[in-house]
Fold:
Amino acid sequence: MIPTPHITAKKGDFAKTVLMPGDPLRSKYIAENFLKDAVLVNNVRGIQGYTGYYEGSRVSVMASGMGMPSMGIYSYELFNFYDVENIIRIGSCGATNKSVNVRDLIIGQRAFTTSSFAENFGLPKDFLGSASEDLVEKAIKVCKKLNIKPVIGDVFSSDVFYGEKDKLDYYKEYNIMAVEMEAAALYMNAYKAGKKALLLATVSDSLVDEKAQNLTAEEREKSFSDMFIVAMEIAKIS
Ligand code: HPA
Structure:
């Protein structure tokens, strides 16, 4: 089913590995600043997707939009209609554990959620999605090589950004390191399609440390750039 309702790319336009930031402008930024010979392969609803080369390896980057329904649509279509094998989400998250600091890089092993996404997607209500072990291992290896010390742990994928009920006890009980809004849907799609997925997320704020400083624009850019490089290095060896 190509083109799909949400992607006009042709068969073969996407590389085997797709990096997915939430923001379409970030997708454009990565294509323009980190990829060689990047070609725009999708722009439906402004969800910019590019395919280019990172150190000689073909890699794609396309936005997921925000939230599980949006990530659900794009990851489903990439895995099931475009023969994409690996999707690496590159996003931001809020720390939910005091040991996690602003600017840290999270490797999300499992994505807890209270969303109805799993049930609506034909999975058990309490299905717990997880990252591909292979991609987690590669992420750890790449971080070591680049001298980055990641936080390897579980995250919570929330359906709400504003007005979320207090879940501090829940985060503590399940030892959740950070909250974001897309990983659970990505992991469920990878599970159903028999493909590989990984969440990399830079900590942009903290829900548990009032003293945590929000990043300056410059620090934010640097942390995100480090994460893109980790993701592209993983793509190169996948
Ligand atoms: N909640 C959900 N997603 C996020 C947050 C948050 O506090 N911070 C960054 N992404």
In short: The chain has seven helices and ten strands.
